[in-house]
Amino acid sequence: MGDAGSAALPTGRVALLFSDIERSTALLNRLGPAYGDLLDQHDEILRRTFAQRGGHEFSNEGDSFGAAFADPADAAQAALEVQERVARHAWPSGEQVRVRMGLHYGEPKVRGNDYWGEDVHFAARICSAAHGGQVVVSAAMRAGLGADAAVSLGHHGLKDFPTPRELFQLVSPGHPPEHFPAPTTLSTFHNNLPSIAAPLIGRDGVVAELSEMLTTGRRLVTVIGPGGMGKTRLAVAVGERLATEFADGVAYVALSPVDADHAPAALAEATGAPLGGDPLLAAREHLRHRRMLVVLDNCEHLVDAAATLALDLLEHCPDVAVLATAQVPLGLFEETLHRLEPLTSGGGSDGAGGSAIEMLVARSQARDSAFSVGAHGADRASVERLCALLEGLPLAIELASARIRVFGVERLVAALERDVDALGSAGRDMPARQQSLRAALDWTLSLLTTTEQDVFAAFAAFAESWSIEQAEGLFDGELDELAVWDALSRLIDASLVLVKGDGRFAMPERVRRHAVELLAASPLEDRRRRRHAEVVGQEMRELTLTAHVDYRRMLANIADLLPEVLQALHWTRDTGDHRHLIGLTAPGLAKLGRLAVVAEAIPDLVIDDEARGYDDAAVAFAEGLLHGMRWSTDSDAEVTTFERAARGYLAFGDVREAVIAGHRAAGALEAADQVGAALDRMDEMEPLVDLIADPRWREEWERRGATFFELDAAGLEHRRRVLARWGVGTGTYSVGHSYNEAMIAGLSGDPTAALALSEQALREVPRQQLNLTLDHVKCVAWLLAETGRGEPAVELHAAIDAVYRARTGAGHGDVMPEFTRAFAEAEQRLGDEAAAAAQARGAALSYSDLVDRALQYATGGVKA
């Protein structure tokens, strides 16, 4: 290295540079003896550059170099110049040489002409993380160069340095950073732990204890305690601490939003197991050879299912540990229980529970940095009294801290002491968790305004969740939208309402139960539930009308709305609002195959003369749907009913619903083999479609009209022209296009092609649409019968009827006489015994199994 190499190594803080050639072994194998010439040229470039920048070589082994610089800027410049010279050098045999480099600024120890110590090892590990042509530097090195000298590569663990540290890529001045793959560091840990902003307070000892258990042979540890004790926050903290202890990371499984049937799927998704098939088996195979910590959070509502998951992991995945949280033990032999105690009310962190005061102060200061205790701050005795009343429950402390900034500690204490009877009103036989939660809710509600308390109770009218528009509708005529927003924001701040990931709002279940009690005791309950019924009924009505423009979106939205509709129907069952609500919701219920929930009430609500208002027209329409659901053989009555509904809607001024009712009447005519009359009825509604003034309705109307055809050349040509002009769209027709194609092919004498189209149709139709899906399955069954596969045809036919009868109370009729003939002939060919066996197999199938079986039969995947 010349003079620079012979001079004494710099001491104190120095910049350490390590480098080596990427894929040097491959170069050696390709070049053979010529590799020595390449090394000589490589060494000359590095040594000349180091010398020019005041570098001191202290290590050289093979293609690896170590050099030290007194000035970090010289080290950085030397690294960049080496990369530039290596890149433009003409190497032997036209080879391309790429050098990776790492820089760290530290205080290595000197031993003769070499360095030693942690800084040396760290600099070498940084070099090993780089790619050829890249210079990776430590945070200390970047600090010595300036913020603009390097760009962050994120935090990474290095061999012997597993705690993630931030690494940076050195950038040439005036040039954008070159793109490289992610640094070659320790494997990226799988970690889906939720981000919780609030710090964990008073639980350090518990975190350490649980971490030791899980890394020293305790493969199942269950943290138990009452609701609101902070079990989830504790489990997340343990997962964060152990993220680098388990080679494959930590998987967090949130069980609170799932039921027992979906718990295996939640486990599979959280652990990254492949989708499809049995989720428990998929998770087991995925984790069989992995070392991972699995957190099963909130197991109390499905203890048996959670215990099954944990036991399966213990038995089949020897390197997986499980941390569970629940209010009760899972009851497994290998389970180690840890009972999470309340935070202590004293001022110190002594005791297993930690300090309630410490948490109260920290959370209050997070909301108001000026909050303090003693001197000129809050009275310490009042703070201690408040923590005692809160019973060391972290949820209660969190709620209290949200109110201290506005009301102060002493008013909170006074509020709780005024409600002392309420705190004990549940009785000594009630679980402690309910008493603690009730206390937290009671004092929080006592600090809300009268309007906010009313809004809180009113939200209990919703069965599951609500949108901001539904919240506004609930108070239509009473509160303007800003007042609703303000109240809702206050409830969110108080942790009484949660913001869901889909932008909707909900209450934690235990909080919602409390709200239901308050609503039941309120003189406004009837008004609130009537408004809820009107809001969800009108929304269901509007959503159903969007079938013409976006069928799949409509179907998904009404499926989400179904719990609210069912609750509203239950509430209005004995009121005058029931007829109105049925009229609003019957079309949507029919789309989901749930019309049976109101079927018994409809006949008593029908009037025989002309509709006098919207409700009369809507109930007439519901009666027509009931005819269709039960496959009435009285086609004239069905047509008459829908025509009466159409006239009523039109008199009321709702053109869209009048058009839909008229289309239903035309459909009933076509089903009765009166195609000409059906086409005439469609023509009569053309002016009404124009009145809607929505081009999407016009397009969908023409598509629908194309399905009313005679099976002749003229009819098929008309349909072809319509589709060529408009395509299949996104409305109702879009999910029936392949089905129509299959029907045409089957009726035209090509059942083999029709079966392929029918299979495609069945894959396209949304399964929550019961009626359409079963129609598609029946088409498959018919085509199987037509192609001589009698047993699967009879099996599917029986399954369709069994599923439909279970959902609606009625049998599933055949839409065409060709169907009835084909199934009768198939049964006859099989004989009584074989036909009965096939029918029994079909009757035993669930809805989901029926659809899957139909798909398998259509593709030839299953033999009867």
UniProtKB/TrEMBL annotation:
- Boundaries of every Guanylate cyclase domain copy: 15-127
Q: Which InterPro entries match?
A: A/G_cyclase, Nucleotide_cyclase, P-loop_NTPase
Q: A GO term (biological process) for this protein?
A: cyclic nucleotide biosynthetic process
Identify the stretch annotated as signal peptide in this record. none
Q: Which GO terms describe its molecular function?
A: adenylate cyclase activity
Q: Which PANTHER family match?
A: HTH-TYPE TRANSCRIPTIONAL REGULATOR RV0890C-RELATED, REGULATOR-RELATED
Protein name in the entry? Adenylate/guanylate cyclase domain-containing protein
Q: Which organism is it from?
A: Nocardioides humilatus
Highest classification ranks of the organism: Bacteria, Bacillati, Actinomycetota, Actinomycetes, Propionibacteriales
